[in-house]
Amino acid sequence: MSTAVADHLLARKDAVLERLMALLRLPSVSTDPAYAEGMAATRNFLTARLRELGLQKVQLLDGGGQPAVYGEWLGAPGQPTIIIYGHYDVQPPDPLDRWVTPPFEPAIRDGRLYARGASDVKGSTLIAVETVGAFLAAEGKCPVNVKLFLEGEEETGSPSIRRIIERHRDLLAADAMLSADGGRASTSLPTLNTGSRGLCKLEVTLRSAGKDMHSGRYGGAVRNALHEMARLVASQHDAQGRIQVAGFDEDAAPLTERDRADAAALAGDEAAFYASTGALPHGDPAYGVRERVTLRPTIDVNGLWGGYTGAGSKTVIPAEAQAKITARLVPGQDPDRARDCIVAHLRSHCPEGVELFFSPPGGNSPSATLPEGHPLLVAAEAVVRETQGRDPVRARIGGTLPITGIFREMLGIDTLMFGFAMPDEDVHAPNEFFRLSSLEEGLRAWPLLLSRIGQSSAADFAPWRHATQA
Amino acid sequence: MSTAVADHLLARKDAVLERLMALLRLPSVSTDPAYAEGMAATRNFLTARLRELGLQKVQLLDGGGQPAVYGEWLGAPGQPTIIIYGHYDVQPPDPLDRWVTPPFEPAIRDGRLYARGASDVKGSTLIAVETVGAFLAAEGKCPVNVKLFLEGEEETGSPSIRRIIERHRDLLAADAMLSADGGRASTSLPTLNTGSRGLCKLEVTLRSAGKDMHSGRYGGAVRNALHEMARLVASQHDAQGRIQVAGFDEDAAPLTERDRADAAALAGDEAAFYASTGALPHGDPAYGVRERVTLRPTIDVNGLWGGYTGAGSKTVIPAEAQAKITARLVPGQDPDRARDCIVAHLRSHCPEGVELFFSPPGGNSPSATLPEGHPLLVAAEAVVRETQGRDPVRARIGGTLPITGIFREMLGIDTLMFGFAMPDEDVHAPNEFFRLSSLEEGLRAWPLLLSRIGQSSAADFAPWRHATQA
């Protein structure tokens, strides 16, 4: 593969770093309206840069929330059209007093660039943007058609992304998506993200009486909603943490030998994994820790409440208890069926007369997987081999990337995550940083990746496209 | 027994009713500072009345909160000295729009006097006060020495009662206490309250990790504080509601034949008992419903919370969960030991590494019982026989009356509850009422009771006095 564009970029990496620092100086906190000015300034910075690099149709795509920044280059007819995804918003910087240097004053120490958003994900986003610009500057063209899509509300759960896509379905038509988000899984091994867990959610309200009761008058002769909720929650797992919900994981794809080998390669330092949160090891002993958190489904109660929760005591027998539950899903599991299994389990374990009410289904995401043989996967593995001298370990993300599911559902395309963040870079925390070495690696790898994808035609992607929902 | 004083009182019952209505017009809501004026006006009304009736040392006893109203008559040397307890504060009247007539404008309909505080407990309190006055008016003396003690913060949990007693220990020295609070247990049978359940409280914080975790990163491999708390709560009872806490009810006095017969007589309409709250029958099948709610101990989780409880979902694995627990106790159970049993149970059911933190012990009350043969019990049973033509059914209160325990602990005296409220009078609710027939019954019975107690001497009470804590 020609390294000409990569060389062109790397020769200018100081300028890229300066631009990244300028971008990091703009406080684009999407969760807090106080930062509206920083958000707008960031959009201005990006649209100006996209125009400067020679992209066309540079514009803001508005879905009623924070608009996405868009720009395209479609000068390669017959070649694949690739959406390049990044996001320009960042997490709030609090707690401010724990930062060694201020969050929006980028500072370099020991080969690390410290700033809010450096790792998540302005660093990798700028690598992708500059790569496109370098092709246009050095060669006057890109190996693929490019649609840059830089979201502004990833950190707030992408509330308007569906409306943005809906309103700009034609503009966003593409063969596949490359994401600058979803970083690397290891600081020591070359890895490639090939998928993420899905999610299903439910809220359950349990009612054991028409109203709260006084324990002096009723205590001993009535059901207590919190006792009943506790029994239901406890029934979902055994003492080892194995899920006891009938049917729930029946469709979960069994782990392949490759899955287990990849998980073993990424097992890492389990003691450090637990020590970082003071958590206690737990879960199905048939699987290793890395397998449990990436390749196996889970059910977690995320919130539970009922009765009196104020100061002091109140001798009430609560009539109602509530719980928020989410499940992480793996390939093979249908989110609606997973939810139905949980609902059925809770209903079947609920004593007669105790009522359960469930939130309407919605907001679920299936697990995402880049299938074996997909041109993006083939290209990316080749690039990792070339740049790092060995096959990448395939990693799956234990979390859920709703974007991936939404683009697949609405535009029929799969996503390859090709971000350069590392797992230890304190994203969402004080002193977030991005390695300067990662910047360099990204500037080398992204041009190679686009070149490699350009060796396929648009037609090569056709068999991999999914049906979209109307 | 002479009915002269009762006859004197009953001949003036219209005037008593008018005074009760005047008292009910004063909005003495102790829980809400907005009613400070109503509280003060009520104290003025009562101190004026006590002086008018010829009581001495009429004064306010201040413990830093709402003062108690006090007055005494000690003109019967050698006779027993009896504290007569009532309370002048009432519950808030909300929801106001559900009252047929305004809560502080007493109204008579169908032989019932509607007003906030009519049943709880200004009606019975005034009966007691007027009884003392009638003795002094009709006979120039009382059959016993009387210390009227009218509390002003019963509805707020008596926060300063201990300080009041502490500051006025000598003034309050007595042989026993008669309470106008703690009404009758049945609308159809003569009953006598002989005791109440005790209470112990604890709060438990469970910690399974140093901080909340993201279920995408940790889900499947760590303990979830809410799952662990649910298992602990569920472990306290079996599916029938039988307590599973080792040792907890070991010291509970077994039910006697008389206990069971009294409970059976008061079983009442169980369907109506449950229908009133929409609750589901539950609990130890070895005991009847009335037994379960008055004669057997309970453990109830009154509040439980942890994790994310706001709108929408948050994929957090909570590191901490909290629960408030109270237990109702019966004769034989020591509150500290009961609490220790619950703590030991939770600790022994808690997986290694999961931490439990308990609130410091405090605010516990033992179960109260007026012992067989106590002069107050003997006198009261005789009065019920005389006025109602049959032996009363002995009833125990399922709730806890901290006053009883505090007077026993601090002054060494037992309490007989001799209130005339009925269990269906909507106390603490809109349209609270007191039966005019109950007013008449009270005005007849209280003089007889004081006369009957006057047949004992102070010396007769000596064996029944308890040691007090220094």
UniProtKB/TrEMBL annotation, chains A, B:
- Designated name of the protein: Dipeptidase
Among its keywords, does the record have Hydrolase? yes
| Keyword terms, alphabetized | Hydrolase, Metal-binding, Protease
Highest taxon of source? Bacteria
- Look up the record and give one Gene Ontology term from the biological process aspect: proteolysis
List the top taxonomic levels of the source: Bacteria, Pseudomonadati, Pseudomonadota, Alphaproteobacteria, Acetobacterales
Peptidase M20 dimerisation domain segment(s):
195-353
Q: Which residues form the signal peptide?
A: none
